[in-house]
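We emphasize that the prediction below concerns an isolated chain of 239 residues; any contacts that depend on oligomerization or on bound cofactors are therefore not represented. The input was used exactly as deposited, without trimming of termini.
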Amino acid sequence: MNLEFPFVGRIKEIALLQRLHAQGKHVLIIGAEGIGKSALIAQLRASLGLRLCPASERLSEICEALEGEFGLDAGELHLIARKNRVLNSLKGTKRAAVFDGASWTTPKLASFIENASERAPVWLCVRSEYPWDIGRIWPLLVRFEHVELKPFHPSESLLLVEAAVRSRMVPADALNIVGWLHRNAGGNPKTLCKLLEEIARGHYDFSNPLALRRLNLDRRIHEIFPPAIDKNEARNRDE
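Result of the prediction step, given as a token string:
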């Protein structure tokens, strides 16, 4: 069960990114795993017309994503020709190219991103800004505005649980344990969503303190051993 929870919170970050996009700035979005970088980009993508590379560890997957954004057919072209064509397509555009999931950058990949940044605004979504984590792109980061995504504030965790209850994804008594959910998730939206998925999947009596311990244990077990997908659910996904 992978529920699609509504997007909540990040009001200040959204306003900041909208302003930076209007100014044509390069942006480095920094945050730990599961903190919501991809969700934030998905929320802004349509309104800002962002050109998205959902996977950015290899030049081939970046070219494939941007070719899709520009409606280009790779055909029998060599990767170098594809790269040059994508860079030409980026030239002069005001719409930011977003490289999500960027991590260790090789010299070839860093060179491409630098060339892209000379033609259009570039946004990088990373878990770390340190050179030993980000690779050869690190010297270029002085040109970027840094936007850090921090863990959810308790009020944002409450908004997410309230939205899940309104959507009938989880029972209303989940509102009685919002504080516990926030603390055990450490304010991490992905972990919070996993806990809510466990509530939706199982039957927990929150009047019993042991239920919370079992809930957290179930979440940890399913991180290692994902539950089997129901055949009907799998069929619905394929359709």
